[in-house]
Specification:
The chain is α+β, with helices and mostly antiparallel strands. The chain is built from one helix and six strands; from the N terminus they run αββββββ. InterPro entries: DUF4307.
Length: 137
C-alpha cells in the first residue's frame, strides 16, 4: 500500500484538559515594541555622535625629530577661533611600545596654530604622533 492517510489527532475527551488555540499577538503591541527599539537605537546613535563624532578640531603633523630621550613634534591644529584645544601626543619606540605621552594645551587665539612640542621619553623614540585634538573645557 503506497497511500498515506493524514487524519486529525483526536484525544480522549476530558483526559488532557481543554485545548486552546494559539494566541496571536496584537498588531499594536508589535508596533509599540518596534517603535521603542527604533527610538532607543536613534538615541544611542545621536549620543555617540555628539560624544565622538563631527568635530571642528583637527590636526596635521608637519614633522618630528628624535633624540636619545625625547622627540620634537611640529604639528598644526585647526580649530574654531577663540576656543582653546588640548592635543594628545605620543612617542613610540622601534618595537611599537609607548615611550612617552603628554597633553599639549593650544591657546585660543587663532583658528590655525602651528605648535612645536618636545616630549621627554623613557627610551629612544623612533616616531612622534598626535593622537587627537579636542576642545579644552
Amino acid at each position: 500500500m503506497d497511500e498515506t492517510r493524514t487524519t486529525a489527532v483526536r484525544f480522549p475527551p476530558g483526559r488532557y484538559g481543554r485545548r486552546r488555540e494559539g494566541r496571536k499577538a496584537q498588531k499594536w503591541v508589535l508596533a509599540a515594541i518596534g517603535s521603542v527599539f527604533v527610538a532607543g537605537g536613534l538615541f544611542v546613535s545621536l549620543s555617540m555622535y555628539n560624544q565622538y563624532g563631527g568635530t571642528d578640531f583637527s590636526h596635521q603633523v608637519v614633522g618630528f625629530d628624535t633624540a636619545e630621550s625625547s622627540v620634537s613634534i611640529t604639528f598644526e591644529v585647526f580649530k574654531p577661533e577663540g576656543q582653546a584645544a588640548i592635543c594628545q601626543i605620543r612617542a613610540r619606540s622601534a618595537d611599537g611600545a609607548d615611550v612617552g605621552q603628554a597633553e599639549a594645551e593650544i591657546p585660543a587665539a587663532k583658528s590655525e596654530v602651528r605648535v612645536e612640542y618636545t616630549l621627554e621619553t623613557s627610551a629612544k623614540p623612533v616616531t612622534g604622533e598626535v593622537l587627537r585634538c579636542y576642545p579644552a573645557r
